[in-house]
Amino acid sequence: MKKYNKIISAVMASAMVASLFAGCGNAADSGNSSADNSGKADTAAENTESGEAGNAEASGDSAGAGGGTVFKIGGVGPTTGGAAVYGIAVQNASQLAVDEINAAGGINGVQIEFKFEDDECDAEKSVNAYNTLKDWGMQMLVGAVTSGCSVAVAEKTAEDNMFQLTPSGSSVDCVKYDNAFRVCFSDPNQGMASAKYIGENAIASTVAIIYDSSDIYSSGIYEKFAAEAANQPFEIVSAEAFTADSKTDFSVQLQKAKDAGAELVFLPIYYTEASLILSQASTLGYAPIFFGCDGLDGILNVENFDTSLAEGVMLLTPFAADAEDELTQNFVTAYKEKFGDTPNQFAADAYDAVYAIKAAGEKAGITPDMDMSAMCEAMKAAMPQITLDGLTGVGMTWDVSGEPNKEPKAVKITGGVYTAM
Amino acid sequence: MGKMNSKLKFSKTTKSNMITYLIVAVAFVAVKILLAGGHMSSLMEGLLVPLCIYVMLAVSLNLTVGILGELSLGHAGFMCVGAFAGAFFSKCMKGAMPDGLRFLIAMVIGAAVAGAFGILIGIPVLRLKGDYLAIVTLAFGEIIKNLVNVLYIGRDGEGFHFSMKDSISLHLGEDGEVLINGAQGITGTPHDASFTVGIILILISLFVILNLINSRDGRAIMSIRDNRIAAESVGINITKYKLMAFSISAAIAGVAGVLYAHNLSTLTALPKNFGYNMSIMILVYVVLGGIGNIRGSIISAVILTLLPELLRGLSDYRMLIYAVILIVMMLFNWSPKAIDWKERVREKYFSGWKGRKGAAGQVSEGVLSKGKGGK
């Protein structure tokens, strides 16, 4: 018998491994109801009828074709980790838009169900999140939130032919397949628009740049800005980089900009670093014009930041929470009421994304019983035909390539608020 | 009984190794059956290749930590080197040769480059006594990550262009293409990785490592771990054997990196995937599975990769639950009290098995205590 024990233990161990896999497969297949419930708690959705609809629907097929009575829209983005603030903004704003649309009768009279999965800002995890949503029966995707994850997920959606609309994936490759569209400007677009704006309005003749070379967003804008600057009547006198590992002290970069005599410092970075740059520049006694992109939006809400330092900062952003128009006002009020936070540009992009899906869905006349691929084809054809008046632009249209057409708005901070220029 | 004895005349280690191979093979067949029947969810299907990658990483790190008895905190760095080397090659050669051959060469290149870096680091560091390898590999992982983030390589009609500043200073021609774009890494790596390839690579890694352990060289390596002075006194070339184990371990991690790069279309060196957190994660697989226990590494890597995904239902709480489960599992596996308790339970309820299992039990205990001694 002694000899058998090894063999038996081998068989048992393999059986355990096999059952582990089998168990996972079955759990994911049949465990739809529990996933739905937790998803509901996750997204704080109050509409119970959609949850029940999800329960009733047995979407065991791995193709993820719906065949139900609701549209299932999924979202992918970071809700934990360093980039969580962006993912949570997208999650909240999408949920807000979905709730509003549902209250107003849904898309073509059909309710929407929305579920958001965490990707921790990791490309590998974002594919897992996408697959989880596919098991849930997702028909259209709002996401991913960050560029790297969007590129990874786009590969999968292109394979499955699922309609993808990323609210904020700004790198060029995010929309390289024809099933993918985006709401925000692409990085090169922002860089080019900034350079043109500075040149055409003759804001400065010498420009310094401080950018984050370890960040895709920042280096993407910088490169295009520098390329476009050659065609503009100003000169780049210094371009200094920092990385994610050294983003607390900017005195060297600022000193170089100062020594080079730059009248304007271009900051294609996020607002946390920008707030440090502004306060360190004031310590140095250096007061150029600061010019940024949409990443700077949110700088007035940084804790312990003296907002008077941001006086005169210009930024090119499609969205400002203080804008006067009714749509923005309503959105900001509703968002604050529900989530207790001022929405940022990511939230606005996500809100517009959901409404763009609604507009395109109505144009295409999609129904929930269409299969994923047919729905994607219909949406693809409808996207270039719609015009959307959203938070991030009036009269937005889309190209077949997936890029949005909208005017960047330049705003200036005066008296602690954004004012349009 | 008698018949069986004459049939199975393998040594204990051979049988143990066979069991390890068998587990992998059975898992492969089981997954294939599930896939063919369409019973597998998309999530599980998507996780198959990452599972293979993490199993390879865990097994290879176990060679350094468990068998060689050195602590390495930069395993993700070797994975990063392999991933970028392999992806760079694939990106250059895309379309120029058959996909299968290109992928194979990419893997060889990944292994060679990662192995070379292993030797480079090993030559000065492995001569020293003490935990210097941990410090140096930790630094290496971070350096590699940052280096890759400032690396720009492009290609046009005139050949390759290289820069450490930005992609503009590559001065590419009209037909130019940026291959490695700094922080944006490599995008558009062909998707060649599949579960079958992953399993084959796991089997190869296991074959290499298990055979090394049971060879003359392997015994020399383990003797260094157990008693360096004694090993030196019988004329074992310490540095040579340490280097051997360490560079093999690095090379396998490099292959895992190549697989990783060919599984996702975007490859960026973020703290998340190639930072030291990842290195620690791999170390956790090894420690949880049992230091020096190759089969344990496989099982723990599979469980710990699946766990966070299966806990998705708990939304943001899953990271908390995951950490708690990790602590509980560690305690259950390694705390002396827990080991005593497991022993008592076994005696109480399975005392009938005790006599028969005696031999098997001793083997595993032996491996464990050896592992501890090595640390």
Low confidence ranges of chain A: 17-67
Contiguous helical run count of chain B: 16
Number of strands of chain B: 5
Helix content of chain B: over 70%
In angstroms, what is the radius of gyration of chain A? 24 Å
Succession of helices and strands of chain A: HHHEHEHEHEEHEHEHEHEEHHHEEEEE
Helix content of chain A: 40-55%
Flag low-confidence runs of chain B: 354-375
So what's the overall shape of chain B? globular
Indicate the structural class of chain B. Answer: mainly alpha
Proportion of strand residues of chain B: 5-15%
What is the H/E order of chain B?
HHHHHHEEEEHHHHEHHHHHH
Number of strands of chain A: 15
Q: What is the average per-residue confidence, as pLDDT of chain A, rounded to a whole number?
A: 81
Which band does the percent of strand residues of chain A land in?
15-25%
Q: How do the strands of the widest beta sheet of chain B line up side by side?
A: 2-1-3
Principal-axis shape of chain A: elongated
Q: Mean pLDDT score of chain B, rounded?
A: 86
Tell me about the largest β-sheet of chain B: 3 strands, antiparallel
The rounded distance between the terminal residues' Cα atoms of chain B is: 41 Å
Strand order of the largest sheet of chain A: 7-6-8-9-10-14-15
Description:
The complex is a heterodimer of chains A (421) and B (375). With 421 residues, chain A is an alpha/beta fold. Chain A has 13 helices and 15 strands. In chain A, the strands form 3 sheets. Chain A has a 7-stranded mixed β-sheet with strand order 7-6-8-9-10-14-15, sandwiched between helices. In chain A, strands 2-1-3-4-5 form a 5-stranded parallel β-sheet, with helices on both faces. In chain A, strands 11-12-13 form a 3-stranded antiparallel β-sheet, with helices on one face. In chain A, helix 4 packs parallel to helix 12 and helix 12 crosses helix 13. The longest helix of chain A is centred in the first third of the chain and has 29 residues. Chain A is elongated. The C terminus of chain B is likely disordered. The longest helix of chain B is centred in the first third of the chain and has 27 residues. With 375 residues, chain B is mainly alpha-helical. In chain B, the strands form 2 sheets. Chain B has a 3-stranded antiparallel β-sheet, covered by helices on one side. Classes of the chains: A alpha/beta (421), B mainly alpha (375). Chains A and B meet through helix 1, helix 2, helix 5, helix 6 and helix 8 of A and helix 2, helix 3, helix 11, helix 13 and helix 16 of B.
